[in-house]
């Protein structure tokens, strides 16, 4: 089991002293919550009020359709009405002859994404947000206007031993005892031209590695994304949307391969990519490819065909999650350069991808050309 470098000595001296002092100072309180909220309501001791009686001189109001509640409108985040599949499931998707479960899975190499039939991103967003929250994740990005939802870096608590230190000091300083691994998931929601919604999940991971002869220091290293974990998340997501475990595994096993050849076009304005597929499909695949590089999508404008991205420093984010980072760090991120990745139709069933500047002209900088190279590697 790995401890953060700070805790290698803090566990022996400062944190134990802090934990012991806090434990003694809280003596006489049943829980930490009792100490923090001594004036909370005692619901167990509350008495039931007497029932209300209608005065004898009042008559019963005439209840008619004029007073009926208006029909429910499914707004963003509201409960979407579900359809019943031939198998009897109440599914979020709309079943059809091709998709009796109202959804299916598509793949491009080891990348998979879920297609929910007959539902817009607005109708999907609420259940999708519930899915992550019900599974214990905190969302650091919840932007339905861009279709991007991302969890915060989550510690894999299953890797932490249930020892005396964890049961005592760990209860007071939960963030101070680390499993040495962090995972983050990024969800991208896209509308398709046929009225369906594409949902993709990208996994990112970091691991704290002990260094030095006495293992008293450490550094964070990136771990490869886990396609199997991404597939498992999509399988669980389908169950949230109304399928059984067996049905969701069946759709995952029957993922429909989707892909197109990618060619590099070397022009006077720098390199661009030509994808032999229409805009809708190319837009989705470019978004997936960006998620699998070290660039983070800040915003996107589908109508203009622009992804706004910047270089992502995962290690810097994790350092801010440490003990001193939580106590003293500023929430203001350091400014980084933003790039504009342009996806636009070039010809029938051909889409061009490149990096442009704020004026829409080709960006010929070395960093921009590096993005094109990374996209080419991911899309192939």
UniProtKB/TrEMBL annotation:
Pfam family, one: Lipoprotein_18
Domain of life: Bacteria
The entry's keywords: Lipoprotein
Entries under InterPro entries matching the protein: BamC_C (IPR042268), NlpB/DapX (IPR010653)
Name of this protein: Lipoprotein
UniProt source species: Caballeronia novacaledonica
């Amino acid at each position: 089991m790995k401890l953060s470098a700070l805790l290698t000595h803090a566990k022996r001296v400062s944190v134990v002293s802090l934990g012991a002092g806090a434990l003694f100072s809280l003596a006489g309180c049943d829980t930490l919550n009792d100490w923090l909220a001594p004036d909370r309501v005692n619901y167990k001791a509350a008495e039931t009020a007497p029932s209300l009686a209608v005065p004898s001189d009042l008559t019963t109001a005439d209840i008619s359709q004029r007073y009926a509640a208006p029909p429910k409108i499914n707004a963003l985040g509201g409960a979407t009405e579900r359809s019943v599949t031939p198998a009897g499931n109440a599914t979020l998707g709309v079943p059809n002859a091709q998709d009796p479960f109202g959804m299916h899975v598509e793949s491009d190499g080891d990348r998979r994404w879920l297609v929910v039939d007959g539902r817009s991103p607005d109708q999907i967003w609420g259940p999708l947000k519930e899915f992550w929250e019900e599974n214990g994740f905190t969302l650091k990005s919840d932007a339905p206007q861009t279709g991007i939802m991302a969890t915060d870096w989550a510690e894999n608590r299953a890797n932490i031993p249930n020892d005396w230190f964890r049961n005592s000091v760990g209860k007071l300083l939960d963030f101070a005892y680390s499993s040495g691994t962090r995972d983050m998931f990024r969800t991208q929601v896209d509308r398709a031209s046929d009225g369906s919604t594409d949902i993709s999940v990208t996994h990112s991971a970091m691991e704290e590695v002990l260094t030095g002869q006495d293992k008293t220091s450490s550094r964070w290293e990136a771990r490869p994304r886990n396609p199997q974990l991404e597939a498992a998340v999509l399988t669980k997501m389908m169950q949230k949307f109304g399928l059984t475990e067996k049905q969701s595994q069946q759709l995952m096993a029957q993922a429909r391969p989707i892909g197109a050849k990618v060619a590099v076009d070397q022009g006077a304005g720098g390199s661009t990519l030509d994808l032999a597929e229409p805009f809708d499909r190319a837009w989705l695949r470019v978004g997936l490819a960006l998620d699998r590089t070290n660039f983070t999508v800040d915003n996107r404008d589908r109508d203009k065909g622009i992804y706004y991205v910047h270089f992502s420093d995962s290690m810097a984010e994790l350092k801010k999650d440490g003990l001193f980072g939580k106590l003293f760090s500023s929430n203001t991120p350091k400014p980084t350069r933003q790039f504009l990745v342009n996806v636009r139709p070039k010809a029938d069933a051909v889409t061009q991808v490149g990096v442009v500047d704020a004026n829409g002209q080709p960006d010929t900088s070395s960093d921009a050309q590096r993005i094109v190279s990374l996209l080419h590697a991911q899309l192939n």
